[in-house]
Specification:
- The protein has 226 residues and is α+β, with helices and mostly antiparallel strands.
- 43% of the residues lie in helices and 15% in strands.
- The chain contains nine helices and five strands, in the order αααααααββαβαββ.
- The protein has helices at 12-19, 26-34, 43-53, 56-59, 64-68, 75-94, 105-116, 153-163, 183-199, and strands at 123-129, 135-143, 167-173, 203-209, 214-216.
- A five-stranded mixed sheet has the order 2-1-3-4-5, sandwiched between helices.
- β3, α9 and β4 form a beta-alpha-beta unit.
């Protein structure tokens, strides 16, 4: 059945206009974004096919090429879906990210897990804090294999000065889910701590995170006390 043949109460756009977004199913919301299907599938069936392949819990991790690989989803539709997902993510995060209190390494681990969930490569974040140890900003600075040749202190401390931060916690993930620090992790941490001492903006911790656990250099007494 074509979408135009459905009763108005079952057409995604009309239902959204009359009853509001909360009345729509996941597939109906996606159908609104897709706008139309193709000659073999109407837009509602296309939305159902996408969600069957990528359930809602996983769709936030889909790339442009994942969507492009689905028949009936071209470049424009793929970009619009990705933009909508990113907009929703930012709205969700803006509610509570400013000036939140992250007092322990576990707090930071639980906060950053959202960003690195199912990540296939290493991400290096810096958490910038004010004098009250409240989060000013969380920033992704580097991607790829984390080591001293990739992680440049100048980028880390440039952001700290821009934000007038009083301290920094560095965080990166191990996609293997093994959070034990490598020799390179130890050397990098030592280098950053020493640089923080010179800059007058201490590195409070370096946390290695996985899906199910974390390693804190501070908790393991591996942060130098300069």
């Amino acid at each position: 059945m074509k979408i135009k043949e459905l009763p108005d109460a079952e057409k995604p756009r009309e239902r959204l206009a009359f009853y509001g977004p909360s009345s729509l199913t996941d597939s109906q919301i996606l159908a609104v974004l897709l706008r139309n299907g193709y000659h073999e599938k109407n837009v509602y069936d296309l939305a159902l096919e996408i969600l069957k392949q990528y359930p809602l819990v996983d769709i936030k991790n889909c790339s442009f090429y994942d969507f492009m690989a689905i028949k009936g989803v071209g470049k424009v539709k793929a970009l619009e879906i990705i933009a909508a997902i990113e907009l929703g993510r930012r709205i969700f995060l803006r509610k509570s990210e400013q000036l939140k209190s992250l007092k322990t390494p576990k707090d930071i681990w639980q906060d950053v897990r959202y960003y690195i969930s199912s990540a296939k490569q290493e991400y290096f974040y810096c958490y910038y804090f004010n004098q009250k140890q409240e989060l000013i900003e969380r920033k992704l600075l580097f991607m790829g294999t984390v080591n001293r040749s990739i992680v440049h202190p100048r980028e880390i401390f440039k952001e700290a000065y821009r934000l007038s931060a009083s301290s920094i916690v560095c965080v990166h993930n191990h996609p293997s889910n093994c959070v034990n620090p490598s020799k390179e992790d130890v050397l990098l941490t030592d280098h950053l701590v020493k640089t923080g001492y010179i800059q007058g903006i201490p590195i409070r911790d370096h946390i290695i995170v996985g899906e199910d656990s974390y390693y804190s250099f501070f908790e393991h007494h591996n942060i130098l006390n300069l």
